[in-house]
Amino acid sequence: MTEPFVYITRAVPEAALTVLRNGLPGARIVVNSHDRNLSHTELLTAAQGCDALICTLADPIDDSLLRALALKLRVVAQYAVGVNNIALDTARELGIAVCNTPDVLTDATAEVAVGLMLACARRFVEGDVLTRQGRFSGWAPLFHLGHGVYGKTVGVVGAGRIGLRVARTMRDGFGCEVVYHARNRRPDWEQALGARFAAVDELVAQSDFITLHCPLTPQTRHLIDARRIGLMKPTAVLVNTARGPVVDEAALADALREGRIASAGLDVYEHEPAIHPQLVGLANVVLLPHIGSATHETRDEMGRMCARAVVAVLSGAKPMHQVV
Ligand code: DGY
Does any domain span residue 321? Predict the structure, then answer.
């Protein structure tokens, strides 16, 4: 029997490689040596013949790729919790396991969501820029005013782990009232957080902060569109740390430019890594480069989880976090 071949589409922390080397002695482990994402064709060539693929949310693990690798491929371990870039139905049909990395990135991503709410409401980035540019000419009663966060209403879309952590932080840390929307009502949220369930239209209309934590699915694509942005308060702040296409970016850019909502904090983009050109020129938006899970601790643990999933499947055991 030949030793297994594991292909990894981007450089990963050493912690992941250690788990692979210990769990699969003699395995051929190949890491993409380019400091960039591979195209579909490049990925197909590089991963040909692999038994396991460790990939990222930027890799198009689509129907044709899975079918081309199906002869040997047994597991796809996604270095993320979101799996919208993977053709799950095809994987299911071909008997290829798909695993992801839930839990370990909850705190890190919630930190970014809360940070964006504060940064937007209190205009941190604009303040930093004007200070560096030498435009801070002294304290004044009407200078650089924002809006407070304490006691406001936070609308959380998506009632998964990250949404829950954000809701808790905003309620416990900032005395916020929590309104939430999810596919199913969550009595646990209602009891523990005093959260109120609302339809999306109602949530966006009532919230001072709207924070998105739902997966990207055909149902959530452009969930926040021009019409729903139109329902928001003029003082509303929209934060997206989920997936870019949940928001119609062009409609958001128009609303921000026209001051129809106060501001937005974005960590993800509709056509990532491209960003709508209008957004880049606006002062009332904070733009981050998809860093929700980007802490040393979290990325190490995500790497270990992917590696453990690969070791488990290739050893005939059940992986811990299997989506398909
Ligand atoms: C995820 O896990 O889906 C995140 O977007 C990665 O940071």
Answer: no
